[in-house]
Amino acid sequence: MKPRHLVPFFFCAAFLFSAFAGGIQSAAGETPDLPTVDLSQRKELQTVVAQGTPEIYQGHPTSVLLPDGRTLIAVWSNGHGGFAGPMAESADAGLTWTRIDERAPAGFRRHKNCPSIYRMTGKEGESFLWVFSAQPRMPRIVSRDNGKTWAEEEPLGLKNVMTFSSVIPKHPGAADGCYLGFYHRRVSDDGEVYDSEPPGSGRLQSLVAETADAGWTWSEPRVIADIPETKEAASDRSEMILPKKDPCEPCAFWSPAEDEICVLMRENTHTGRSLAIFSRDGGTTWTAPRETPWGLTGDRHAALYLPDGRLFVAMRDMAPGSETSGHFVAWVGDYGDIKTGAPGDFRLKLIHSHAGRDCGYPAVHLLPDGTVLAITYIKYDEGENRHSVVEVRLPPEIFKTISKEP
Q: I need a labelling partner for 316 at 20 to 30 A (CA). Which of 36, 37, 131, 300 fits?
């Protein structure tokens, strides 16, 4: 039986920040409440997709697995939050990679900050690969032939800090062109939306937009998490200030029963745990944010379901008191653990970061044989080489072996 979590959580269906804010304050001195298995020294599990050099910083990759179960396409930035341009393809399920930068349109190199790639299928069965970037105002490129050729399209025009960090079908299993895209932006204290991210001002909001034509047009976005500093009456009739939280980099996925959407969010003040919200009406309304289990505290979550039904969530570790803080890790547990606040089963240290808290932004994939791929940017070497894009490959036996450990 799994141990009970140390901090209870209470489900709230209304989006009321005054009701939720007191519940997100973490106790000081939190410590791990589930085991961590260190796989970071197992170099045979790791593949360098793009090697960093003293001059070249490879940053913030995402990737897509095509329906053949073997072809992957990855995109990333030159430098930390820098310009797009790099692109690579693997025809053997991530064992080897080939650079294909020349396939992208020239304008792609003017797109900036964390390009993200997704595959969407329209009502007529035609599929599109989209790469969205952050600036200027969410520019994009598209491929109609599984990445062989690309064309630049008009930007979406959305002010943002980061483009879609998650895109999921609105109706799971239906090839109807309907998808939900999740991203975040910064606003001033009086609600003005910034065009990028001026440092040290305002707060972050997470949002969702919808497409009904497989990525070509998108709805006006809706705010799904916004946690400003608020005042609340104290028991002595005075007022107490409830701290703001910065929900960002939303990671969305459907529940196993496909009747609820869960969104995990980085909490950018890093004064507690990460945040989670839920929707039971296809993304129209959302619960108030609440804290995740301790082991899910991280930056830029990326989630998939393992063959046994458990969740695998990769991230940059930001859990309070964690011995692997700042490294590339994954949490394994049940969907119900997130709902109830239970710790989960275990965490994995996947790759060691030689630059502290500068890694993650992962892509995760489940191959047909049950192997999990997780791709990150990370300072892989101790020397002068800057960040590389690195893949870790986890065969299904790893999860079976760990599950049998006491």
A: 131
Reported as a single tens digit per residue, the pLDDT across 45-80 is 999 999 999 999 999 999 999 999 999 999 999 999
Backbone angles phi, psi at 25, to 5 degrees: -80, 120
| 182 pLDDT higher than 50 | yes
CB 400 within 8 A of CB 393: no
φ/ψ (deg, to 5) at 157: 80, 15
pTM: 0.91
Residue with tokens 């049940």: 334
CA distance 80 to 57: 7
List strands edge to edge, sheet with 311-317. 36-38, 346-351, 328-333, 311-317, 298-305
- CA 268-247-392 angle, to 5 degrees, is 70
Indicate if the pLDDT at residue 25 is higher than 60: no
The separation between CA 9 and the C-alpha centre of its own chain, rounded to angstroms, equals 23
Hey, is 320 helix, strand or coil?
A: coil
> Is the confidence at residue 156, as pLDDT, over 70?
yes
Closest by CA position to 263, among listed 248, 279, 251, 254: 251
**342 to 34, 54, 261, 400: CA distances (angstroms):** 10, 43, 18, 21
**DSSP collapsed to 3 states, 29-82:** CCCCCCCEEECCCCHHHEEEEECCCCCCCEEEEEEEECCCCCCEEEEEEECCCC
Residue 264 tokens, joined: 């995990």
Q: Specify the pLDDT at position 240.
A: 60
- Residue 327, classed as helix, strand or coil, is coil
Phi, psi of 327 (to 5 degrees): -95, 170
Render pLDDT for 296-314 as a digit per residue (tens, 0 to 9).
999 999 999 999 999 999 9
